[in-house]
Amino acid sequence: MTLDEITYKINGCAMKVHNTLGNGFQEVIYQRCLAIELEKEGLQFEREQDQKIYYEGKEVGTRRADFVVEGKVIVELKALIDLEDVHLAQAKNYVVAYDFPIGLLINFGSKSLQFKKIYNKKYQGK
């Protein structure tokens, strides 16, 4: 499955959750519901998986990713009224620090689902 196919399916799952619940719940509720939808879609994923953070090729710590889907896509969830630049910067940093080719930042807290695709420049053109 290509990265585009994976992210398309994740986006569809997130839209189903948002259309069903709307906004206003805590992030953990959306996380649990998204896990149900990802499973129904047949996507393999890990939830709250520790990810090693690298700096210049050396491990410097860990942080938990909300989701790692198909071992290729990092998914960071938010439940905020609106995404701000700091949230996008955080997600970009995770994609690079975790050394994944692509990441998704999904916000369930706004009236309309907010969905940002983040690319790791290291993998562009490969």
Largest sheet descriptor: 5 strands, mixed
Portion in helices: 25-40%
Distance between the termini: 16 Å
Count the domains: 1
Shape: globular
Cα radius of gyration in angstroms:
14 Å
Helix count? 3
- Say what the CATH topology is: Trna Endonuclease, Chain: A, domain 1
What share of the residues does DSSP label as strand, in percent? 25-35%
Sheet with the most strands: spatial strand order: 1-2-3-4-5
The count of β-strands is 5
Summed over residues and divided by their number, the pLDDT gives a mean of 93
Main structural class: alpha+beta
Topology readout:
Elements: H1 3-21, H2 27-40, E1 45-55, E2 58-69, E3 73-78, H3 85-98, E4 102-107, E5 114-119
Parallel strand pairs: 3-4
Antiparallel strand pairs: 1-2, 2-3, 4-5
Helix pairs in contact: 1-2
Give descriptors for this structure.
single chain; 126 residues; Trna Endonuclease, Chain: A, domain 1; 37% helix; 33% strand
Polypeptide structure, described:
The chain is an alpha+beta fold and 126 residues long. It has a single domain (3-123), classed as 3-Layer(aba) Sandwich (Trna Endonuclease, Chain: A, domain 1). Helices cover 37% and strands 33% of the residues. It is built from three helices and five strands. The chain has helices spanning 3-21, 27-40, 85-98; strands at residues 45-55, 58-69, 73-78, 102-107, 114-119. It has a five-stranded mixed beta sheet, with helices on both faces. The radius of gyration is 14 Å and the shape is globular. 25% of the residues are buried. The model has no long low-confidence stretch (mean pLDDT 93).
